Amino acid sequence: MGAIRLEKVKKTFGTLDVIPGVDLDINDGEFVVFVGPSGCGKSTLLRLIAGLEDVTDGKILINGVDVANEAPAKRGLSMVFQSYALYPHMTVYNNIAFGLKMAGESKAVIDEKVQNAAKILNLTDYLERRPGALSGGQRQRVAIGRAIVRNPAAFLFDEPLSNLDAALRVNMRLEITGLHQELKTTMIYVTHDQVEAMTMADKIVVLQAGRVEQVGKPMDLYNNPANKFVAGFIGSPKMNFIGGDYAKKHDCHEIGIRPEHVAVSTESGDLPATVKIAEHLGAETYLHVNAEGFGPMTVRATGEVPLGEHDKIWLTPEQDRIHRFDANGIALGKL
Amino acid sequence: MENKQTPLGHIGFSIFAWIVGLLIFFPIFWMVLTSFKTELEAVSIPPSFISFDWTLENYAEVQARSDYFRFAMNSVILSVGSTLVGLLFAVPCAWAMAFNPTKRTKDALLWMLSTKMMPPVGVLVPIYLVFRDWGLLDTRFGLIMVLFLMNLPIMVWMLYTYFKEIPSDILEAARMDGATLPKEIIFVLLPMAVPGIASTMLLNIILAWNEAFWTLNLTTADAAPLTAFIASYSSPEGLFWSKLSAASTLAVAPILIIGWFSQKQLVRGLTFGAVK
């Protein structure tokens, strides 16, 4: 069981309110992602849940029990660090076994659990190696193995894929998602990468400056962002924001339209534009354009599109995909 | 950044370094050489370098006159004892400063180091009186206490700079794995810090071994280490240079040998953290 609830959790460093007050519910077995820009407090929030930082105020309930004043070891959680934080002087076997050793388990039980974890993570051939002799991906798996073996109420991941190259990141993303499906244990995952958030999460918590901007399923956040910040953060490339007369036509201060919701044509459309830079990715093309009267915009076209600098095109935003925002950046409903 | 030194500059610098090294080493060299001379040759002008009658009579006399082994054992007990006691305090202290710093941590560290700037003679009288009243004069226990306290700031500083290089998230991982604070230090921190601890121990042993002020003032016979052994060969008049050199060579030989074999550790310990 791994239901976690945060009630008015506050963290202050000196006079700085890093987290002014967070309320959050995490259901048992959920994969929750804390996402946000650097310095938004997502890692701090994770460390508060882990017990590596003390809360200034508030409650952290794990399965109904307030653990805000408990040591990390007593909370029944496991953590995978960004830098893996493996014990360099111990073998892979002892790294994974360390938590069980601290819990006072017998040698036979330790051996069984370590061998099981090693099998799940394809580490059986590496058990006698030291971390220094492993690749980045292998080290990451040892860090995960160390977390799994303790059978925690929840796993905490602190940007675990940041140190890996792009290809390995994609593989490990799938592995972690597969692990979640297999173990069905609550996982709280911190990342600044919204692609990881969108692809892995059951629920995303978007944070900015210590405040929860929005909580919801990935597609809810994508289709119905609560404010301009969430709208601009979720989705890649970033949503286009247009003010002025075009926004007034939609009875709001600013409209937002995602690059993939703008039709591109060389013949006709609503808005004329000139291509400045074209990024050809094969499966899709990103066009960075200057829309007349609106300024720079990014639009996405499917497949290979033979357009380049100075080409004149027409843009037609999909009307039912337009997001409306007031002067404070709060989302307004559809017209 | 590429080293832009020319070959000539490189050779010039090497020659300069060798000259400095030889100058620093010269007193030791001369001391060892003198220990094999007769008293007369030791004071001869011009001084003889190689062409003299080499003799072992000084060593024989030093051995006959005093019990070298007892003084050497005291030196070992005092230097190793004060180092081990020092580590018991310095490790937790450096841990707290490195991994749980507060606003005042840097100030505390500077204050500790500043106590080393005060000449020991400034506190000789009060310490002597305390030792006298507590029956600690000429005791190994008393000397161990003085030496450990004297070198504690250096031990804390060295361990602190070493511990600061250890990533704190490894200790946090140990905490998440259920390690209590003592287990975190014993199973994770200390094994990772072995090189730093080894260099700290070596340096402290050397400093304690060579310490002369307190050992001469607070000991007479029972706890007297090799520093007192050497001092006993100084007399206000008369010829004594050869015997003094022999006694001195016997006194510094053990620590010179240890230092020679552990010089890599010593250099690493002293410069660790200074250069990234």
The Cα radius of gyration of chain B reads: 23 Å
At the first level of CATH, the class of the domain at 66-232 in chain B is: Mainly Alpha
> What is the overall shape of chain A?
globular
**Per the principal axes of the C-alpha atoms, what is the gross shape of chain B?**
globular
What percentage of the residues of chain A does DSSP assign to strands (E)?
25-35%
For CATH, the homologous superfamily of the largest domain in chain A is named as P-loop containing nucleotide triphosphate hydrolases
Largest sheet of chain B: none
Describe the sheet with the most strands of chain A: 6 strands, mixed
In CATH terms, the superfamily of the domain at 66-232 in chain B is: MetI-like
| CATH T-level topology of the largest domain in chain A | Rossmann fold
Cα-atom Rg of chain A, whole angstroms?
23 Å
Number of strands of chain A: 19
Cα end-to-end separation of chain B = 14 Å
CATH architecture grouping of the largest domain in chain A? 3-Layer(aba) Sandwich
Organism (chain A): Thalassospira lucentensis
Family (chain A): Belongs to the ABC transporter superfamily.
Domain ABC transporter (chain A): 4-234
GO molecular function (chain A): ABC-type maltose transporter activity; ATP binding; ATP hydrolysis activity
Question: What's the short story on this structure?
Answer:
The complex is a heterodimer of chains A (335) and B (276). Chain A has helices spanning 42-50, 92-102, 107-120, 136-148, 166-183, 194-200, 218-223, 228-233, 244-249, and strands at 4-13, 16-26, 31-35, 57-62, 65-66, 77-80, 154-158, 186-191, 203-208, 211-216, 240-242, 254-257, 262-265, 271-280, 284-291, 295-302, 312-317, 323-325, 331-332.
